[in-house]
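re the bet — no i am not wrong, look at it urself. input seq straight from the record:
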Amino acid sequence: MVMIVGTVALLLGVQGVDGQALTPAPPPTASAPDTASAAPVSDHVPPEPPATALAPMSARETMRMMQMNDGAALGMLLVDQLEWRSGDGLSGPAWNAQGWYGTDYNKLWFKTEGERFGSDTDDGRLELLWDRIFSRWWSWQAGVRRDFGDGPSRDWLAFGVQGLAPYWFNVEATVYVGDAGRTAARLQAEYELLFTQRLILQPELEVNAYGKDDPQRLIGAGFSNLQLALRLRYEIRRELAPYIGVVWERSLGGTAEIVSAAGKNPSVLQVVAGVRFWF
C-alpha cells in the first residue's frame, strides 16, 4: 500500500508538507580529488645561491654596472701575406702585414707591404696611422707613410677610410700628400669566399694613382698600376693558414712607358705560395 501511494505521488507531482514539489534526489557522484594538496611535478633545479650578495643600488647604478666594458685596450698583429712569388723571370719574397693597438673607438694602426727580387727591395711601403671609428662598419684613418726600395724614399701624409662595404667587401681608400707637390691615391678591396669553414678563396684588387711623374721611382702621372690576386688558403686553425695563388700586376699609362724604358716588363704574372697568421 505504501509503495502504491509513493508511486502515485511522484506521477501526480504531490507537494510536500511545506508546499514544495517532491523531486527525486540526484544520483551520487564520485568526489573530485583534492588538487590543492597535490604537489606539482617539475624537473627544475634551482641555482645555487650567489656567493656574494650585491648591496642595494639605484636603477642608474644598476644600468652602469651592466654596461659593456668597451674601453679596454687590445692589440692584434695580422700577417696577411708572407709568400714567395715566381714568374716572368722574377722570383722572391713578398709580405703584407698590419697591426693595431687601442680601444674600440681609437687605435694606433700600422701597415706594411713590399716585395724583393734578388738582393734588393723592389718596392716597399710603411704606414703609421691613427684610427677613429665613425660608424658601425667604418673608421677614419690619418697618419704618415714612407715608400722605400727601388729609388729614393718618399714621405707622405695619409688620410682615408677603411671598413666593411655592402656584400662583405673589405675596402681601404686613402689619399696621400707628399713633398714637392706630390699627391697619390690608393684603393684596395678584398673578399672572402668560404667553400667550407676552413677552405677560403680570397680575391683582391689594388689600384694606385699619382698626381705627377716620379721617374726615379718608375712612376708616371695618372693611374700607375693595377694588381689582381687570387689566393686559396686552408685554415689549419684560425690563426694559421697556408695558401697558394696567382698575382697579376700591370703598369698603366705613363708608368708603363717609364717601366718599359727602364727595361722591365710592365705586365707580370706570378704564382705564389705562402702562409697567413695572426696573434
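see?? The chain is about 10% helix and 50% strand. told u. also The CA atoms of residues 125 and 147 lie 5 Å apart. so pay up
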